[in-house]
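Reminder to self: tokens first, then the designed residues, so the page reads top to bottom the way the pipeline ran.
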């Protein structure tokens, strides 16, 4: 039976639609995020992602001609998500390290971080030396956890506890199940603004550099890094930094200075 003109037109439309589906899928930038890490990234009451890095990745996606589709993951699952290519990019105040660069790629950094020691108000902990004989907690597989474990014996920490979420870490701190929490100092201070009776008496300069993580040798890495450089030079990054942290970034800081894609020992 010879196909009619209408049938042929229908087949052509269906073929065109099928060809368009992959193109539409490519317009989405798949983003993985730890959803309880304010002010870097968190969910508001409506369930929408907000935060400093949320604004960064959303703007990067816009400049790529895409839309950012952000999904929440446990912190440890973020590394699996990039390794398995389930996401194109991850945001979660992630520290670039040589070890991580072996299996992941990172964009240029945009913030130099520091750690903080969070305690209950009135705690005798006022310096790192005061952690001796005490119980300390942090987030599993994070840079702060590695920092604490490497110095546990040196600091005389009696016990270390690992947590899957920041909420559980801070709940145990508030309830006295641990004596101190070590985490990103910005995140601790942001959380404690909503938690009366908590304090950050110790800030630890570490020089860690926060960036977005991507699958190893991602074909999108160069483009994403170029957009970050443009955001640093056109004032966008400074505007986002001031919006979320309440101060302007320092002149000459990594927040304002374009950098190449990190390589081991150079970031």
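Designed residues (267 positions):
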């Amino acid at each position: 039976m010879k196909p009619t003109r209408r049938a042929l037109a229908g087949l052509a439309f269906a073929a065109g639609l099928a060809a368009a589906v992959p193109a539409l899928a490519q317009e989405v930038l798949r983003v993985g995020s730890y959803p309880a890490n304010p002010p870097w990234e968190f969910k508001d009451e409506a369930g929408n992602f907000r935060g400093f890095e949320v604004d960064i990745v959303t703007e990067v996606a816009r400049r790529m001609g895409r839309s950012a589709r952000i999904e929440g993951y446990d912190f440890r699952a973020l590394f699996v998500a990039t390794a398995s290519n389930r996401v194109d990019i991850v945001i979660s105040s992630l520290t670039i390290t040589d070890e991580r660069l072996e299996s992941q790629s990172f964009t240029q950094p945009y913030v130099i971080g520091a750690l903080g020691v969070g305690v209950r108000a009135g705690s005798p902990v006022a310096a790192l030396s005061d952690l001796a004989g005490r119980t300390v907690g942090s987030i599993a597989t994070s840079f702060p956890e590695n920092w604490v474990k490497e110095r546990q014996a040196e600091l005389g920490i009696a016990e270390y506890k690992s947590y899957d979420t920041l909420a559980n870490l801070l709940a145990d701190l508030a309830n006295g199940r641990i004596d101190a929490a070590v985490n990103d100092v910005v995140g601790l201070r942001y959380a404690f603004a909503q938690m009366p009776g908590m304090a950050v008496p110790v800030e630890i300069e570490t020089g860690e550099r926060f960036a977005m993580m991507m699958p190893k040798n991602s074909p999108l890495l160069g483009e994403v890094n170029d957009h970050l450089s443009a955001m640093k030079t056109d004032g966008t990054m400074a505007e986002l930094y001031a919006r979320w942290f309440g101060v302007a970034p320092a002149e000459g800081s990594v927040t304002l200075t374009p950098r190449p894609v990190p390589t081991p020992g150079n970031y």
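Residues 5-26 form the longest helix (22 residues).
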